[in-house]
Structures are given as structure tokens and as C-alpha cells.
Design a protein that fits this description.
alpha+beta, single chain, four-stranded antiparallel beta sheet, elongated, 237 residues, 39% helix
Length: 237
């Protein structure tokens, strides 16, 4: 009788151990599954997030009766980067590539990373400004290539999917007069005004002022779409 009791206790003990192991495995599986679901949802929120970028409108052209352009506007950009987002091991590569694309010497680019007091800047810096449309497109292409080369790293290790790279941002709008000062008495001239950190020309005299209602940009455009991890709009078609 005592042997039967001992066997029953052993069976009960083994059953309890097996049940505990099963529950432990089930709990670990549930934790693992919840982590996977969390990562998937996080990626969806990050990678498929819709972003809207304002496309600055520019001042209109002044064209003569015989179709000669008397004055026109050009949009300019600036290149910015967060120094902390650059992998220290690949900083030389970053400087070399940016120098090749921008035409700025490596020495001058490196000087942007240091303050006037000689201290390293930890944060956002302007590498160059007054960039024309053509160069801005080249630098945006460079930004993608740098990301592919893993030159940039996440600032927060808890959010490895958030990586900030090279940013090409609208900076100003300049007014050009192909005939220089010859037609100034008639055409007039402009002065620069800063609106929301963006420099725009304002008509002061002549046609530039008289026809301000026709020349002033009426509404900025909007570019809207899904973005990638560095905030660039994905163009699907």
C-alpha cells in the first residue's frame, strides 16, 4: 500500500513538473510573439507613415511683349546634418563624398564640425547654403547613397529604425535680372525679407512693385506620400 502511495506521489510530482514546464514554454512563446507583433507594428508606423512636405512657390517672371525674360526667381537650398548621426568610423568617407558632390574642399567641410572656440559641435550644422536646384538633386541622391553605405547611425539605440541623414532643405529665393541694371528704372528692384526662416524677394520699385499682386506666389504646393526611415517621400509612380 505504501508503494502505491509513493508511485502516486511520483506521478503527481512528475505531472506538476511537466505542467510547470508547459506553462513556462507557453509564457515564453507569448512574450516572444508579443515582441514580434510590436516590432511589426512599429515598422508599419515608421516606414508607412504619411508625410507632407511644403513645396515653396516662387515669385513670377516678368516677360516683355516680345517674350524676353526681364526678371525671374530661383529657389535655393541648404545642406544640413546632425553630427551625432554620423558614424565616427565613416566620418572621413562622409566628408570625402560630400566634397566630391558639392565641390567644397574637405578642409572647409571639416571646419563646419568645429565651433569658433575650437570645440566639436554635437548637433545640427549647415554644411553649405545657396545651393541651386541641380546641385540639390545631386545631394539628395548622395543622401540615399550614404544611407546605403551605413554612414549614418541611430541617435537612440532603443529606436534603431530612426536614422537621420543628410537633409537638403529650402533656404531662400533670389531674384535675377538678365539685363542687370539697364532696365532698373522701369523694372524696379527687390529686397529680401525672411518669412518663416525662408528668404523671399519683395518688390520695392517699378514693375516689381506695381504688379506685386500678379508676381507674388499665391499658394505653396504640397508633396504628400509615404516616407522611408530617413523621412524621404517614396515616389511610387
Amino acid at each position: 500500500m505504501s508503494n502505491v502511495k509513493i508511485e502516486n506521489k511520483m506521478i503527481h510530482y512528475r505531472s506538476a513538473i511537466l505542467l510547470a514546464m508547459f506553462l513556462s514554454i507557453l509564457l515564453l512563446f507569448m512574450i516572444f510573439l508579443s515582441k514580434i507583433i510590436g516590432i511589426i507594428n512599429q515598422d508599419r508606423k515608421t516606414d508607412n507613415k504619411v508625410i507632407t512636405i511644403e513645396n515653396k512657390a516662387i515669385r513670377g517672371k516678368i516677360i516683355s511683349a516680345d517674350n524676353f525674360v526681364v526678371s525671374f526667381s530661383q529657389k535655393h537650398f541648404r545642406a544640413e546634418v546632425n553630427t551625432r548621426s554620423i558614424d565616427p568610423k565613416k566620418k572621413d568617407l562622409f566628408v570625402k563624398l560630400f566634397s566630391i558632390y558639392s565641390g567644397i574642399s574637405e578642409k572647409k567641410i571639416l571646419s563646419k564640425f568645429v565651433s569658433k572656440s575650437g570645440k566639436k559641435i554635437r548637433g545640427r550644422i549647415v554644411l553649405c547654403s545657396n545651393i541651386d536646384v541641380r546641385l540639390s538633386k545631386d545631394l539628395k541622391s548622395l543622401s540615399h547613397k550614404m544611407s546605403a553605405l551605413d554612414i549614418f547611425r541611430p541617435l537612440n539605440l532603443k529606436k534603431p529604425h530612426l536614422v537621420y541623414g543628410l537633409d537638403i532643405l529650402p533656404d531662400s529665393e533670389t531674384r535675377s535680372f538678365p539685363h542687370k541694371d539697364i532696365l532698373t528704372p522701369v523694372v524696379g528692384y527687390v529686397r529680401t525679407k525672411v518669412v518663416d526662416n525662408y528668404k523671399v524677394p519683395i518688390g520695392m520699385k517699378g514693375l516689381e512693385k506695381s504688379y506685386i499682386d500678379f508676381l507674388e506666389p499665391t499658394q505653396n504646393g504640397v508633396i504628400k506620400g509615404k516616407r522611408d526611415v530617413i523621412g524621404t517621400i517614396l515616389r511610387d509612380g
